[in-house]
Amino acid sequence: MIKNYFKVATRFLLKNKTFSFINIIGLAIGTLCCLYILLYVEDQYSYDKHHKDANNIYRITTALQLPGDKHNNSTSSPPIAPAMKSDFGEVLQFTRVIPTIGVKQHLLRYKEKSIYEKDATFVDSTFFEVFTYHFTSGNAIRPLAEPYTIVLTQSTADKLFDRGDDPVGKTIEIDNSYGKHDYKVTGVVDASLGKSHIQSNMFITMRSGGFGEFVLGNDSWAGNNFAASYVKLHPKADPMVLEKKLPAFLNKYGAEQLKNLNMEKQLHLQPIASIHTTMGYENEISKTVSPFFLSILLLIAGLIQVIACINFMNLSTARASKRAKEVGVRKVIGAERKDLMKQFLSESFLLAFIGVLIALPLLWLVLPYLNEVTKASIQFSFFGDYRLWIILASLILVTGLLAGSYPAFYLSAFQAIKVIKGNFTSHISAAGIRRSLVVFQFVLSIVLISGIIIIYSQLNYIKNKDLGFNKEQQLVFTFHTDDTKLKIPVFMEDMRQLPEVKAVSRANNYLSQFVFNDMGFFPKGGNMSNAEDAQFIQTDEHFVKASGIKLISGRDFRQFDSGRVLVNETLIKRLGIKPEAAPGQKLYSQQSDLDTRPFSVEIAGVMKDFNYNSLHENVKPFMFMYQGNGDALSNVIVAVNSKNYKALLDKMASLWHKDLPAVPFEYVFLDDEVQKQYETEITLSHIINSFTLIAIFISCLGLFGLAAFSAEQRTKEIGIRKVLGANVYNLTTLLSKDFLKLVVIALLIAIPVAYWAMHKWLEAFAYQVTISWWMFAIAGLLAVFIALFTVSFQAIKAAVANPVNSLRAE
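Given the sequence above, the corresponding structure tokens read:
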């Protein structure tokens, strides 16, 4: 019986080629988009689920309450994790992961070969007891137990060692801001088991002197919240019960230190599998993705598939008259309604299956483009990935039921006697349902078009907003090793000799980057209880001029201005000091929670507030600390006045190679770095842009089919009207106006929906564009134009046809 259903369905599809083509192409494209988005979202939620006992691994997060400020940190103080292992039987093991703070590039040397590599981390020797990695070389059992040992990723090992050369047991040199050290390679790992939020190319044991030894000996329980700390719990342990014990635990060891800093602190346990898809934590060691963003993608995937299914429903019910007698004859010879429903559902399942068959090779072809749009690395195997088959089976089932249920229900409701006599009406209002579905399609299209307009308006606002400093025509050079830092003064002086260079400065960081230094400050007569937490960057006396930052009182740094600071308006306001009275005043702070002796800095000047970080946040208390020289100032910022960058960069490269002949010439443009703060929004705009075009295309396919069928039904009416004197314009208007009315109704429904959705999205920005009426007007006009263009093609074709041909049968 089932075989017969599909045989009849195949014959019908082959007989009605236009109907079949529109539905199959729409379903194939919709399935392609839906399949990719489902794979992308599944990939994002798969992070860290591959670790053995992943359900028992938790990250220790910290909620800090400082005077005038709050922080929700993904990190904690160094001694907390080992103390939890000691105090709580529920904790089987702990480990800590600490990026090489302030070091972006590491120079690796093996024999005569040297490479630059990013993303190194210090980890405890217990790291591979907590986290599961696939070792392609070496042994996973305590590979970092010995001092000065390192585990490399496969990609780093491939770059540093020759093919066929086993890295294990070899000694490599790493040169960076922490100095030069030799490390013994004890293992090589790859990411074949799965993706992790810990994105590191080198895992260095803490027992490596310098910073690692500082972490191992650190006894700060209030401050120094820079360690990403993890605990692996006993399978029977309840994390909620353990978390309730943490306030007393923290009070036991850190009460005095917290009191000295006037700080309130809470510890929480976060499941490791949720880290990549949770936003709102500071000091993340890798980029996270918003679950709201993933929900939008899933919504877009569902809507695109629904639009394709709507085409099938509309065209099936529109062609009901063509199949009415078939239904009547089948009922007369004994077919029950359920048999007819199975017949029509088999057609929709067949279409869904064909759509998937076409979608798979298409997806394989366009996968590189889609990965470029989403900034992802999605891969799939036709036979090796069981997830793909589950998703495909689900898509066919859901699409077949969604697309075929209403047509099957509608067509099977015809009464046999009536349709055989020529009356094939049903008690169900098919025309009303079709109009409603067309409206729904265009509501979705208009909402997506409005989203594109508002997102691009916000991104354009961000791009052109005055941040309070110059981001244009600024180049940043970063020096990664002690040897190269010795050459900075010479390089800076050479840069100043170029006529295109306006200013050259030095700093330990540069604007738009995460500021990893902060401290509480209070005025004379105060204490840490009324201190204001302020982030700061160390700079030389040229930084303000090079960055174009304005002073509203006092003066800029001068040479040998040790102990002086420049503060922003926000910090001065929070401290209750008037800007004009601030210069010359001293601010005090405690250097750490272990030191109760305050130290002081003197305010040299007050800076007008500027957005040194993302526009997602309001301006916070901020300062520059003077530092004339020193290894900490590893970034050189060069302000230029030339737009002929090729010629200028050639000159700069020549000077670079003169001063640093063995070091690659590397630089970044500051405006590019500022733009990187909005990568998620830019990616979202590209995704919505691409998939909106696809949704509109699928909608137009359905509208094209309905317009063609409408014109076919009214062929004789059009012929009579032409004979009576109607022109092409009259006839085109006649056939188009019904569809345009539906678009106008869709616009009225879409505007409040789009306004609400985009208002929620804009809430993520402290500075945002105003949603205006013209944004929806443009979206509406585009939708009207698209609908008119689609329908008019068929309308004009029918209007210019010879009326003799349409009336000949009368």
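The chain has a mean pLDDT of 82. Try to locate this feature in the token string yourself.
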